[in-house]
Amino acid sequence: MSSYQFALIDRTTARIGVGLQNIVRSWSELERWFHSKPASRQIAIGYISYEQQIYFGIFESMQKIPLSKLIATSPFTCSKLRGLNFTTYRKNFNRIQRHLAIGDIYQANYCYRLTGQTNATPNQLLYHFVQRQPTPYTAFINTPDVQIISNSPELGLSIHDDLVESRPMKGTRPRGTNTYQTLLHSAKDKAELDMIVDVVRNDLAQFAVPGSVVVKKRRQIVGYNTVWQAQAVIQARRPKSVSTLAVLKTILPFASVTGAPKLRAVQILKQLEPYKRGVYCGGIGYIAGKNRAEFNVAIRTATLSHGQLHYSVGGGITVDSDPKQEYQETLDKAAVLY
Question: Which of 21, 34, 65, 332 could be cross-linked to 58 through a Cys-Cys bond (beta carbons 3.0 to 4.6 Å apart)?
Fold first, then answer.
């Protein structure tokens, strides 16, 4: 299993899995590991897909190394990525608007996939992402069949003892003159984040200690190299009777990449999106023992397999959304590729 690499990256350093013991691909396998004696000394690193499929490496430990030891700085080529044209995007946008108009949903995070050909290695692609836009929740999974590079700025879920935290993001603007102020004062983007905050609160309340769900920050603007983003911070207390895996099953898929109400939004999006999202919009991270875990929201995520590159983009649509602006936002999010 020496060809497997799993790493979690925070801008300049990488935590890599050391001493791979096993690969688990089902909830039942993960449950058996989680409740076994070795689990208290081992770490599971991997992902839960948007559709709740799982893929984890079980490691003896995590080791912190300089990011420079993981990346490759040599140049590579990539064809123009092709995905959804604006005509088709607007058609599906209008279908979502009809659901919004009758109150079937209040927001939906519609996504589509870009595809191209490249001669890049996963280590070269990782360097490209972190050089263009370093983020706090980058992840890197290198297996013989597929390679995943997630340059996510968004924390989906962290668990530290009884404290559970989520930091959903809604609202994006490219870095530029006055774009910070434009995002800060956007009523549409503020309303969109407010709706997702309420969904997260509801998700957390399903298992949390009664009265413990707290919105620590309703809205703050955070900056990255190419974009501004708006995020909230929500926390809750987890009772001892609720396991880490139970929390993950309750929360995923994350509110910011689904919609409001979540269940109906997921049903509608499934009808409109021609591909399964897979790891995109799932969560990549780790589980350590019974009381520690951290997962990003796997946005800004590329998958690489035998020279074919997939990179999905999306954004939240509300009744006040403009199709041209929403489509442009998806292009802004893909700008890190170029």
Answer: 21
Q: Kindly state the percentage of the chain with pLDDT values over 70.
A: 99
Distance CA 248, CA 287 (A): 10
| CATH code assigned at 259 | 3.60.120.10
Q: Which residues pair with 86 in a beta bridge?
A: none
Among candidate residues 51, 154, 270, 324, the one labeled active-site is 154
Known active-site residue 326: no
What is the tally of structural domains in the chain?
Answer: 1
Is 81 within the bounds of a domain? yes
pTM for this predicted structure: 0.94
Asked if 217 is an active-site residue, the reply is no
Q: Which residues pair with 66 in a beta bridge?
A: 13
pLDDT tens digit sequence for 124-144 = 999 999 988 889 999 999 998
Between CA 108 and CA 221 the distance in angstroms is 22
Catalytic position from the list 31, 51, 64, 170: 170
Which tokens belong to 330?
A: 């998806």
